[in-house]
Amino acid sequence: MKLFSKPWGAGTAVLVLLFLGLYLMGGCQSGQNSGVIGSGDAASKVYVAPGDYDEFYAFMSGGFSGNVTVHGLPSGRLLKTIPVFSQFPENGWGYSEETKAMLMTSDDFQPWDDAHHPELSQTDGVPDGRWLFINANNTPRVARIDLKTFETAEIIEIPNSGGNHASPFVTMNTEYVVASTRFSVPIPQRDVSIDSYKENFKGTITFIKVDPETGHMEVAFQILVPGYDYDLSHSGRGPSHGWSFFTCYNTEEAHTLLEINASQNDKDFIAAVNWKKAEEFIKQGKYKTMKTVYYNNRMDESTQTASSKKYTSVPVLYPKDVPGLIYYLPTPKSPHGVDVDPSGQYIIGGGKLATVIPVHSFDKMLKAIENEEFEKVIDGIPVLKYDAVIAGEVENPGLGPLHTEFDGKGYAYTSAFISSEVVKWKIGTWEVVDRIPTYYSIGHLMIPGGDSRKPWGKYLVALNKLTKDRYLPTGPELAHSAQLIDISGDKMRLLLDFPTMGEPHYAQGIAAELVKPNSVKYFKLEENNHPYAIKSEEEARVERKGREVHIYMSTIRTHFMPDNIEGIKVGDKVYWHITNLEQDWDIPHGFALKGMRTAELLIMPGQTRTIYWEPREVGVFPFYCTDFCSALHQEMQGYIRVSPRNSKIKISYNKR
Amino acid sequence: MMQRVSRILMTVASLLLLLAFVFPLWRISLDAPQYPEGLGLRIWINTITGEKPHDLENINGLNHYIGMQKIVPDSIPELVYMPYIVAVMIFFGLLVVAFGKRKLLYSWVVVMILISLAGLADFYKWGYDYGHNLDTEHAAIKIPGMAYQPPVIGSKQILNFKAFSFPDVGGLAIVLSIGLGFAAIVIERREDKNQNG
Ligand SMILES: [Cu+2]
């Protein structure tokens, strides 16, 4: 290993700068630095009076929590955690019989994941407030959250993938959400030496079709690509509608110590995929069907129950067979983000280790393709000449530029991780016009609608990776730190720090008016077609079928029916089917049982939820409501008696 | 014979009663801190409904804490007769117009007033029964001497709820209809004076 090669030197220099930066920041701060000029004025800008609403919803990915959190802007208040890829015992997500199937994958039940990029559905290139998509990085998946209920409605697994990072970015009318491999893998999976990376490891770029009415997702096709690390993506709009762009690093195809070995090349690529062409190729049958296994898990609205469907093959396009499908745009130094400006003309790469921000021109790209200005061809993929596609370079953009969002007023905002700042520059002149520090080391940044045709260019949220001294300390693990920045004027102004849960990577924001009117208050009992639902207390009952016991229980203020159950035996397979009969806003009931080894339940009004229990011990066990529901909530309790296996006691329970 | 003007007034008065079939007669709204979205009842000529879907069920649900009987519209006989009574009064009103007899006009107005007073008295009686006749054995909240009778008209604090009770469009139409009947009588009497004087 060449320990003292040049990249090592460069890497060390960058690290030194990073630490020096942090040190200086800490040094000149003397404790905390509000970073706010005229903080009284700033306070009034983020003040949302009691009972008033925020102007925007912000959806933050939970990172390693596998969830999504919902915040209000400009207050930064946390409004909800939406469980997605991770089990969530507080309401039984992933534990209840209705929701377990949502976490099924070809790797069996996967109760956790690492969720990175929320993405709102768009119509005509503008967020429409219907759905929020989010990717799972570890077990490649894409989830769809229904913004009527703020609940996860569907999770689709991505076959032939590893590290689903460049996902789930939408096309202009949500025709597709995309996915791709951050970690190339043997495709199909097989036992090969890791050394044989260059020969055996491949990447895939996946297009998932979204039904415009129902939102139902299905894998439309995959493209088999060289074994680089496909990192981020955004789709074209306006003139570039029909194209999707993906950054890739590790064009060196290293498989060990990537921090050095994947930082050798001067330029890596942005892959430009013509998905409209891909649709034609699929229609013409120019694909190969590859055997594989993946799952699609969908929540049925009428039964409120998820079911899994297993798929066993996928259509794959090979770039060599279908020229015109995909091109590489050389982009300096291990690009991370790729962002398309509101007009759809400019494609911006965020080269982590680059000294400039390269901006590609879509028109120039089309011309270069027409004139075949190719540097070389890799596995059937032409590499366009850098000079033939570049529109401009933003000089002095800060150290470690990562992601860019737009304000719709002609400016772009790029996050710089190493120099820990947001840099504002002008589209067209490529001049930096303003910069503002962030605390500390910003990753993604988000402007509501900032990756769409019509950004609401009022606020910018910096999603920082390091927190350090920004809040009261809470031991070694700290909440992540977000910063709200006013971008309505010429100068950016820091308004607010607020903690975020998990590790928000990307986030999305949307005007509250597009979501709020559709929010469901409760589920209609008459539309509850759950097979174990009951519609009145009179139907409440307990039935034994051999060793299986089904408890049809109801909740309404302020009791369970039945609330005394006898005749259960050790080792029985007990299903608690609990229907919340309430038809009133904000009256969920909870269910908790002593000896329940899985989770508690929260049952929304009109909903039925089932939790499975195998009693191990003889005794009389209390259960109660966990969600304070009325003045007599403390009285909302009951008992279940468990008798020995050989007991002759028959099922009995109290009735209405 | 009645004047042309008073006949027109009576036509309008009779037809106004049709509104009682289209709009609620009375509204009871309940305001409480935990119901920012509101909660309420609408009394129609032939039924009682919630202000919003499920309001009636939710009011019944809340009332069980104090042992109040459930409000079951199908079990209230007045809601069965009322449409017939009002229909008859429309017909009667049109007869007044057709025959143009003053005596008929007077009797129509008197009957309308009597029916309205009887209706209000009946409404009071139901309210009294709901508010006082409580199943105290099964009530969770028992406050000695406390009655939960809603006002016939006006507002009243009942535990955490402020109850407002007022006529709705249908009820106002009936009031206006009687008023027009009165106006017809006044015109007729003035006409008498003119002729006599
Ligand atoms: Cu409860």
List the topology elements.
The complex is a heterodimer of chains A (656) and B (197).
Chain A: H1 6-29, H2 39-46, E1 56-61, E2 67-73, E3 78-83, E4 104-105, E5 108-109, E6 115-123, E7 126-136, E8 141-146, E9 151-157, E10 176-180, E11 185-186, H3 197-200, E12 201-210, E13 217-226, E14 229-235, E15 243-249, H4 258-261, E16 267-274, H5 275-283, E17 288-300, E18 305-317, E19 326-332, E20 335-340, E21 346-351, E22 356-361, H6 362-370, E23 374-378, E24 381-384, H7 386-389, E25 390-395, E26 401-406, E27 411-416, E28 421-426, E29 432-437, E30 442-446, E31 459-464, E32 480-486, E33 493-500, E34 507-511, E35 541-545, E36 548-556, E37 559-561, E38 564-569, E39 573-580, E40 589-593, E41 601-603, E42 608-613, E43 619-624, E44 637-643, E45 652-653
Parallel strand pairs in A: 13-18, 36-39, 38-44
Antiparallel strand pairs in A: 1-2, 1-34, 2-3, 4-5, 6-7, 7-8, 8-9, 9-17, 10-12, 11-12, 12-13, 14-15, 15-16, 16-19, 17-18, 20-21, 21-22, 22-25, 23-24, 26-27, 27-28, 28-29, 30-31, 31-32, 32-33, 35-36, 36-37, 38-45, 39-42, 40-41, 40-43, 43-44
Chain B: H1 4-16, H2 19-22, E1 26-31, E2 39-43, E3 48-50, H3 55-63, H4 78-99, H5 102-132, E4 154-158, E5 161-167, H6 169-196
Antiparallel strand pairs in B: 1-2, 1-5, 2-3, 4-5
Helix pairs in contact in B: 1-4, 1-6, 4-5, 5-6
Structural description of this entry:
The complex is a heterodimer of chains A (about 650) and B (about 200). With about 650 residues, chain A is mainly beta. Chain A contains 7 helices and 45 strands. In chain A, a hairpin with a 5-residue loop joins strand 20 (about 335-340) and strand 21 (about 345-350). The N and C termini of chain A lie far apart (about 80 Å). Helices cover about 55% and strands about 15% of the residues of chain B. Chain B is built from 6 helices and 5 strands; from the N terminus they run ααβββαααββα. Chain B starts with a helix and ends with a helix. The structure holds copper (II) ion (CU). Copper (II) ion (CU) binds near residues 625, 627, 629 and 633 of chain A.
